[in-house]
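Review form for a predicted model. The reviewer records the input and the model, then writes brief findings.
Reviewer: anonymous (R2)
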Amino acid sequence: MSDEPKLLNDKMEGPRSLFALTSLSIAVGILTGLVAASFRLFLHRADIWRTYFIVRAHSWGVPGFLLVVLSIALIASLAAWIVSRFAPDASGSGIPYVEHQLRVGWFGNPVSIIIVKFFGGLLAIGGGLALGREGPTVQMGSGIGQLIGRAFRRNQNECRVFLAAGAGAGLATAFNAPIAGAIFVLEELVGSFHIAVTGATLGASASAICVSSVFLGQSPDFRVPALGFLGFGMFPASFVLGVLMGLLGVTYNHSILAALNLSSRFRLFHGSVRAAVIGAFVGIVGWFAPQLIGSGDNVTQYVLDGKILLGALAYDFFLRFFLGPVSYATRAPGGLFAPMLTVGAQVGTLFFMFCAHFFPYLNATPQHFAIVGIAAFFAAVVRAPVTGIILAVELTGSFSLFLPMLVAAFAAVAIASLLKDPPIYESLSETRYF
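Model under review:
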C-alpha cells in the first residue's frame, strides 16, 4: 500500500481546512440523502408493482408465465444495456470502483454514472434481480461528493474526502444506518480514522439521514421485538455460528467470482443477452416464489419474525444463497449487502433450530441468532466486522447482542483468513469486476 497516494496531505489538517471540509460535507449529505431516499421510494413501489403483476399473471396460465419470464428478462437486459451504452463504470456494486477511485483519483463522468446508476438500479433491482440498493446509493453518493468538490474548486485530495463522505452518506441512507455508513468508509474504503475523513463522513452521513428521514421515517428498517441480554451460554453457540459463517462466507465469495467468470466465458453473448438469460431464470423463480426475488428485504423481515418453518427456511436459503451471485453476474447496477443480510439471517435462524433441538434449555430466540448471523456473515464476506456489527444493530434496533456478535464476527473473520480467502471487494477489484 506504500505506493498508493495518500488520501490527505499535511496542508489539509489546519482548522480552516477542516472546517471547510466538514461544512461542505453537509451539502454532500443533503444531496445524497435526497437522491438515495428517492431511489429507495421508487424501489419500494417497484417491488409492490412487480409482486402484483406476478400474482395477477397467475390467473392467465401459461401465457402469464411466459409474460412474467420475458418481462423480467427484458428488464434485466435493458438495465445491462443502459450501463454498457452510457456508463460502463456504473456496472455491478460500485463499491470496488469507489475504492479504486480513492486510491488513484477520480475517472469517469460522475453525472452519467449517477443517472445510469439510479435508473439502471431501479430496473435491475425493481425488476427482480437479487441485488442490493446500497451499491447504487454508495456510488451515487461518491459521484455527488466529487461534483461538490469540483464545484467549490477543491484540490484532488479534498475531492477524495468528499468522495468518501458521499459514499458513507449513500450507505447510511440505504439502510437508515448513519453510524454504519461512516464506519464502513473508515474501516473498508479508507482504512484509517484520519480526523478530516472522519469529520466529513460523519457530517455527510448525519445530514443525509436527516433529509432521508423526512421521506422514509426514523424507524429501523426491520421490525424486531425487544430482545433481552443473554448469558455466557450464548457465547459458545455464537462462536460455532461464527465458524460456520466463515466457511459459508468463503463459499459465497467463490460463488460470486465463479458466476462472473462463467458468464464472461460466453463471449458470443452480448452483455445484454447474458443479462436477459439470467433475468429469465429469475423470472422462473419469481413465478413460483415471488417473495424470493428482488433485494430480499421482505424475506429478511419474514425470517426475523421467527415464524417460518424449517423446510421452507432451508428451501428459501438454498435459492437466495445462489440467486445473489447469479444476479450479480449480469453486471447490472446493484449491490451485495442486502442479499448478504438475507442469507445471514436465514443461516442464523437455521442454526437456532438446530441448537433448540439438541440444547432445548438455551435461553435465546430465533431473532437472537438471526441478528448475530447477519453480523457474522457480513464480517466473513466483506471482512469489515465492525461495520457488520453496527449495521446489524442499526437495522434491527437491537442493542443487547454486542458481545455475541463480537464473538461470532471474530470467529467468522478468523476462519475466512485461515482459509486465505480475500475479502470480496478486494477480489472484485483485482479481477476488475467493478
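Findings: The two ends are 20 Å apart (CA to CA).
Further findings: Confidence is low (pLDDT under 50) at residues 1-5, 10-15.
Recommendation: see findings above.
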